[in-house]
Amino acid sequence: MINAKIGLISDLHLYKKTTNIERALSKLHDIELLLIVGDIADRAEEKQYDMLLTLLKEQFNDAAVYCVSGNHDNPARDDTNYRLFERKVNNEYPSLIDDCGAFYKCINEHIDLIGLNPTYCQKQFFFPDKGRQLEFLQQSLNRSSCNYHIIMCHPPLILHNPQRTTDMTPYIVAEQDKRFQGILDMNRNVILVSGHTHLSPTVEFDDTHNNMYINDGSICPTVQKDGSGKIQQGNVILLEICSEGLFITVKGVHTDKIFMEKFVGI
Fold first, then answer.
1. Signal peptide location in the record (predicted)?
2. pTM (two decimals)
């Protein structure tokens, strides 16, 4: 039995046209939830968010939409237009968002959703107010009785960054990256969804803690760090959660080609 059918998209970078986004959304059929993992509007302009809002209402009026911000949604540490979009796209947001800037939503009796919105400054992400969003995350997981926990955060953690090297600086400031990872390692059946990298998507399963790490790539053209390219056309991800585990399907934006199908029993 499938408990949820979820579409994942990231790094839309909407500028003047919605053509690429329309193509991406057309690959996601009969979903109950659409999760947008940051960098929604390229310049964080209200008119850009409104263009997407119109498109979502036309194509996904029956699906609930939840999102988190990326660095392009928070220029100069100002997320005013993003927060306005958040409330327009889902009228639940005012009741979901905590004062720290994160949100919690119980999707159904089996699945909950936590959205984190780190700030971006000087090419690094951080959780303000001494990491209150991480405290919110830990408390939300401690209280939850759900089987699966989906966490959305635009930058990936360093241990699951597809670009990682031994001497790489984490996208999130090191102390908070380590704290964030530690919280996840104390829990099980966590699905962390990130974006930001603009690489072909990666799916990593930590069988020690039974947690899944999905880096969603981008709906924009993507390449590997070595330039080889895998899903160069951009991608969307379909995540199906059922009692047996997780089904993950990665589709190209411009074709019907399926680039990855993966099942993990957790």
1. none
2. 0.95
